[in-house]
Structure formats: C-alpha cells, structure tokens
C-alpha cells in the first residue's frame, strides 16, 4: 500500500499490489501498538513506515516488548492480534513478519509468504529457512552452574521433563561446567523413563516420582531446571516429602518468567535469558532486510545472568558461623559493614575470621561485599533509568564519584557507557 508504506507491500503469492491513492483505513483486526507519540493538534501524524505482522504459537511478553522498543522508533504499524486469540493474521499484505513458528499450522501459513522478509524468534525449524534470533542456552547452563558452585554446593541435579534442542544445550553445558570444577551431576530425566508417553503421564504421578527421587539423594543439593515451570514442580515435590528450600534443596530455573516466578510460594531464582534484547535484535534485523541494508543471518543473544532470589539464598560450608556471616553480607551489602563487626558475628578474632572466610568461600570478605555491590549497581544501570547518585546509594557505593571509580577499575569504562553497552550488546 504505497499510501501507507515507503515501499510496496508484498502479497503472499509474491506479487506487488497496484498503486492506490489516499490513505486507506486500517482493517479492524489491526493492532498498531507502535505508533509514534501523539502529536499536538497543529501537527499531522506521519503515516506508518512499514507494516509488520507478529505471528506466534509460543508467546513471550518480553520478546514483544523488545520488538516494540524498535518498532515505536521506526513508526511501524505492528500487528500483534494473534497473541490475544491465537488466530493467524487476516492481512493479505505486509512488508515483514516476525514469527515464532513451531506448530505445523504456523509453518504452513508462513510458506504462503515466501516473498516477504521474515525473521524467526528462536532457532527456526529446518523446514522454515529464514534467519533467526535466539538466546544462548549454553551460556545459561554455564551461568547456572557457576551460580550454584558459588553457593558452596557439592551435590547437583539436572531435572528435565522433555528434551527439545534448547534443553539439551542448557543441560549439557551445565554438566560440562560442573565437571570442569570436579563435580558430578545426577540426571532426573522423566522422558528417558516414559518416552513418547511423557506428556500423557498425569502431573501427580510425575510429582511423586520427582519427590521420591529428590528425597533419596544426599543433601543439601542444588537443582537446575530448563524452565521456570519445572521449578514450580520441584517446589511442589519438595513440599510433598518435607524438604526445606533452600536449606535442603536449592532451586534454579531458567527464562525468568514473571508469571511462574510470581506463582511460587517463595521467590524463585532463575536465569534471565534476555528475551527483550532478542526481540529488539530481531526487529532490527528485519528492518535491515526490508531496507536492503542487511543480508539474512542468525544471531544469538547472551543471557543477562542469574537473578538470585529466595530459592537459592543459602551457602554451604563446614562452618555455620562463616555461612551466617556470608548470608548477612549478601542481605546487607548496601549498609556499612566493618570487619570487626563481621568477625564478632562469627565469634572469631578478626585475623582468624579473614583466614577462615577466604578458605571456605574462596575470596576475602571485602571481595564478597564488593561483588554484591557491583552486581546490584550493574542491574540498576541495565534495568532502570535511575541517576548515578541513586544507583550508588542503593548499591552501597556511596556516591556517583565512587561508582565511576569502581566501573573504571572493574570494566574500564564509565557507568553511563556500561549502561548503553549492556542494552545493545
């Protein structure tokens, strides 16, 4: 529709529509959520630059928010109705498509649009040969292993229900990272027992099996799952046999999905896969393809990292006193923490406390405090628009000057430069 778009739209059969005059009214099913900010009364709003369809059979809110980040600035007409009712778009013309298509229904529909620039969210199926943007599950598995190792655990579990390629990559990287550290992993693989019938086994039967399996293992143990839905199952299984979380079982999920994390009776730790950035990268790639600037390519986005919550809020050492101090540091890092007070909390002389802490934790108390403050500062920089003084205060670094000094030493850049880089890497 030349009256709307900068370049002619492409029909599903690959042909171009004839020119039309004027600006046609959008169809009732359109959902142009990404129009530019409302103009003043004296201004005429610019027409949308492109029409893009959002097609999905596996919807994640964070993906769409990332797409909107780009679409709003490019003044796209972004049609997202499928996420409400599951019906494929009724439009017959579009400049581009952003799709998550694993069902045969969506893949069949996509074949009709062979002449339209498209980008897949998540690794594309083999029979849908279009460029894709995915998150890195191998890095997620390694990040999860490192997080649980830092808690002092020696006994580890990987729990999976089914094993699509993403789950296999995450699980194998988790195991490899732990094996490198001299640790072994117990596999609780429900699919290996039930095969093709796995998803037909009643949930109650699966939870009983999981509860019995966890109860039989040496405690304390740390469990990583491939999906926050599985984290909820581990919580339920622990409750069935009276296992305490995180004292007996630490639970680490993946995806950091707001619904599942909120449904749990205690906050769940999870790996933030950075789906919002993946959505933005997919929109940018599609924009480049539609404009003729880019060639089709595949992109993997690094996960943000582990978001630690109550389900892993523990530390395992042979000294309850050192464990108590370390947990105190992690909960109170933003406050002023003196070595004499921490040593007194441990019931030790200060020199002995420093020595024991480093022996059991692997680094000094000051390093632990610094790491906790730095993690908080980076999270606030990435996820908020707080000014530097506020971030310094919230993270325990005092003021913006000190925050800048820390970032110069640890990252070789200013906090502002780190903030920009973290949002676009």
Write down the CATH class of the largest domain. Alpha Beta
Secondary-structure element sequence? EHEHEHEEHEHEHHEHEHEHEEHHHHHHH
CATH homolog superfamily of the largest domain: Response regulator
Largest sheet: 6 strands, parallel
Radius of gyration: 25 Å
**Domain unit count:** 3
Bin the strand percentage.
5-15%
Mean pLDDT: 88
First-to-last CA distance: 35 Å
What class would the helix/strand composition place it in? alpha/beta
The number of distinct helices, counting runs of at least 4 residues, comes to: 17
CATH topology of the largest domain: Rossmann fold
Query: Largest sheet, order of strands side by side?
Result: 2-1-3-4-5-11
- Please count the beta strands (DSSP E, at least 2 residues each): 12
The stretches of 5 or more residues where confidence is low (pLDDT under 50) are: 1-37
Q: Based on the structure given, which CATH architecture of the largest domain is correct?
A: 3-Layer(aba) Sandwich
Verbal overview:
This protein folds into three domains: 1-130, no CATH class; 137-273 and 306-312, Rossmann fold (3-Layer(aba) Sandwich), CATH 3.40.50; 320-424, Arc Repressor Mutant, subunit A, CATH 1.10.10.60. Helix content is 46%, strand content 13%. It contains 17 helices and twelve strands. The protein has helices at residues 61-74, 82-85, 104-111, 137-150, 165-180, 190-194, 203-216, 228-241, 258-263, 275-291, 320-332, 339-346, 350-361, 365-383, 388-395, 400-411, 415-424, and strands spanning 51-56, 77-79, 96-100, 117-121, 132-135, 156-160, 185-189, 221-225, 249-254, 269-272, 299-301, 305-307. The strands form two sheets. The chain has a six-stranded parallel β-sheet with strand order 2-1-3-4-5-11, with helices on one face. It has a six-stranded mixed β-sheet with strand order 7-6-8-9-10-12, with helices on both faces. Strand 3 (96-100), helix 3 and strand 4 form a beta-alpha-beta unit. The longest helix has 19 residues, at 365-383. Mean pLDDT is 88; it is low at 1-37. This is Substrate-binding domain-containing protein. It holds the Pfam family Peripla_BP_3.
């Amino acid at each position: 529709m030349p009256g709307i778009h900068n370049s002619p739209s492409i029909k599903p059969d690959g042909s171009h529509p004839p020119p039309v005059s004027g600006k046609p009214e959008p169809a009732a099913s359109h959902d142009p959520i990404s129009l530019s900010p409302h103009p003043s009364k004296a201004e005429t709003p610019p027409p949308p630059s492109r029409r893009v369809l959002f097609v999905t059979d596996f919807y994640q809110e964070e993906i769409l928010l990332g797409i909107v980040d780009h679409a709003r600035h490019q003044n796209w007409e972004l049609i997202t109705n499928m996420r409400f009712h599951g019906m494929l778009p009724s439009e017959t013309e579009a400049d581009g498509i952003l799709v998550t298509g694993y069902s045969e229904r969506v893949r069949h529909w996509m074949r009709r649009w062979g002449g339209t620039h498209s980008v897949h969210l998540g690794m594309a199926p083999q029979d849908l040969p279009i460029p894709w943007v995915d998150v890195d599950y191998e890095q997620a598995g390694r990040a999860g292993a490192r997080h649980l190792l830092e808690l002092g655990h020696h006994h580890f579990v990987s729990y999976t229900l089914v094993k699509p390629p993403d789950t296999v990559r995450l699980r194998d990287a988790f195991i490899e990272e732990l094996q490198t550290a001299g640790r072994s992993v117990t596999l609780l693989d429900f699919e290996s027992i039930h095969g093709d019938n796995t998803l037909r086994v009643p949930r109650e039967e699966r939870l009983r099996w999981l509860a019995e399996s966890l109860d039989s293992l040496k405690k304390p143990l740390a469990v990583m799952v491939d999906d926050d839905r599985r984290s909820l199952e581990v919580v339920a299984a622990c409750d069935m046999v009276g296992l305490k979380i995180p004292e007996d079982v630490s639970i680490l999920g993946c995806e950091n999905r707001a619904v599942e994390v909120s449904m749990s009776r205690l906050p769940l730790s999870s790996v933030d896969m950075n789906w919002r950035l993946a959505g933005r990268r997919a929109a940018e790639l599609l924009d480049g393809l539609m404009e003729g600037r880019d060639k089709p390519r595949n992109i993997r986005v690094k996960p943000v990292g582990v978001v630690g919550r109550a389900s892993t809020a523990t530390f395992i050492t042979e000294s309850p006193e050192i464990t108590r101090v370390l947990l105190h540091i992690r909960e109170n890092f933003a406050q002023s923490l003196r070595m004499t007070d921490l040593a007194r909390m441990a019931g030790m002389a200060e020199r002995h406390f420093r020595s024991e802490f480093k022996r059991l934790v692997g680094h000094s108390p000051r390093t632990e405090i610094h790491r906790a403050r730095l993690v908080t500062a980076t999270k606030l920089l990435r996820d908020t628009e707080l000014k530097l003084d506020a971030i310094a205060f919230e993270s325990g670094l005092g003021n913006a000057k000190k925050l800048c000094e820390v970032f110069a030493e640890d990252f070789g850049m200013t906090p502002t430069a780190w903030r920009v880089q973290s949002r676009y890497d």
